[in-house]
């Protein structure tokens, strides 16, 4: 779902990390080795006393400590400081949020989910301008689809700030890492210096892609906010339950979205007092990718902007709530759709369902069958899924055919395509 919102109010290092840093700085260089070997560490009593004193002097509430832990890094503040300075100078700003169902606000039990309330935060900080929020969250979708629709759903809004949230929808394999990093790199290389913030959510099981996503964030000096390091640590310590945060296994409830909003506000409050010291020219030269930037600058296309598509038993169709310009095959007699595209990468979005009526499409590239794509999936629920049809290193003109063989299967929905030049 894409919602336009016109906009709603934290701090950031872990206390345990502070104690660890203090201990390490006061210890001899070889103290870790000595301790591992069983040799007495003479600095240990002093370290323990210092840590105990620091803990006793810490007057923050458990909630405030949790909020502080959420901020993994403020990153390079230049981009966000530049945005805030423009806002202080009276320029309107746009904030976009791309992710899955958490960003969409699914099962929140409230309309006050983080993508709205964080926009409201900025409107409160800058009351003399208009802050527009763009919610580009789609339930059940990973960065494989997020990267494909980035152009349509986010870049088309010309955003100043973009939050990226795919930590519980992505997998751990290379294709997810490559798509996520390509999405991030695309945002960072736009003509406008977009301020990018990475948000790492977590499931009840503890699952999150924070580990590899934070490597990407560190590589590009990005601010990073962690629900795992904040909420999940509270749960593990027994000061909070998962049910306080969520009413199911993954989606924050109203209180959970309040927590995330406070985490974002905590980051904003780090930047706001030091805007003047951090404004400046952004370094547009990116470091080498951690994983891959192969899928950068993917372009979106569907029946609204594709020409000369040959259809046989496929018809143009409003195929999905978030993809209105697709194609639909409904027959048992076979059929195909064929088109020509100049690309190095071609990715297809199709609808999946747990139904024998949903068929398998054979993919032909330049007359050669290269793969088959089944839309009958055990975990399908009419959700959009992606498949790479072409994945080359160089661009060339290709004729692509999506062919349905005659048989019992009756349906195949093509929602859209993405391609890299």
Largest sheet: 9 strands, antiparallel
Distance between the termini: 27 Å
Radius of gyration: 24 Å
Strand content: 25-35%
Shape descriptor: globular
The beta-strand count equals 16
**Helical stretch count?**
14
Helix content: 25-40%
Q: What structural class do the secondary elements suggest?
A: alpha+beta
The run of helices and strands is EHHHHEHEHHEHEHEHEHHHHEEEEEEEEE
Mean pLDDT: 89
Low-pLDDT stretches are: 1-43
Kindly describe this structure.
- The chain has 421 residues and is α+β, with helices and mostly antiparallel strands.
- It is 33% helix and 28% strand.
- The protein is built from 14 helices and 16 strands.
- Strands 8, 9, 10, 11, 12, 13, 14, 15 and 16 form a 9-stranded antiparallel beta sheet that branches.
- Strand 5, helix 9 (174-188) and strand 6 form a beta-alpha-beta unit.
- Helix 4 (62-70) packs antiparallel against helix 11 and helix 7 (114-125) packs parallel to helix 13.
- The chain starts with a strand and ends with a strand.
- Mean pLDDT is 89; it is low at 1-43.
Brief synopsis:
With 421 residues, the chain is of the alpha+beta class. The protein has helices spanning 15-26, 31-36, 44-57, 62-70, 78-88, 101-104, 114-125, 143-153, 174-188, 210-219, 228-236, 242-245, 254-271, 275-278, and strands spanning 3-6, 71-73, 93-99, 131-137, 161-165, 195-200, 224-226, 299-301, 310-312, 314-317, 326-330, 335-353, 360-365, 368-374, 381-404, 411-420.
Question: How does the SSE layout of this entry go?
Answer:
Layout: E1 3-6, H1 15-26, H2 31-36, H3 44-57, H4 62-70, E2 71-73, H5 78-88, E3 93-99, H6 101-104, H7 114-125, E4 131-137, H8 143-153, E5 161-165, H9 174-188, E6 195-200, H10 210-219, E7 224-226, H11 228-236, H12 242-245, H13 254-271, H14 275-278, E8 299-301, E9 310-312, E10 314-317, E11 326-330, E12 335-353, E13 360-365, E14 368-374, E15 381-404, E16 411-420
Parallel strand pairs: 3-4, 3-5, 5-6, 6-7
Antiparallel strand pairs: 1-4, 2-7, 8-16, 9-12, 10-11, 11-16, 12-15, 12-16, 13-14, 13-15
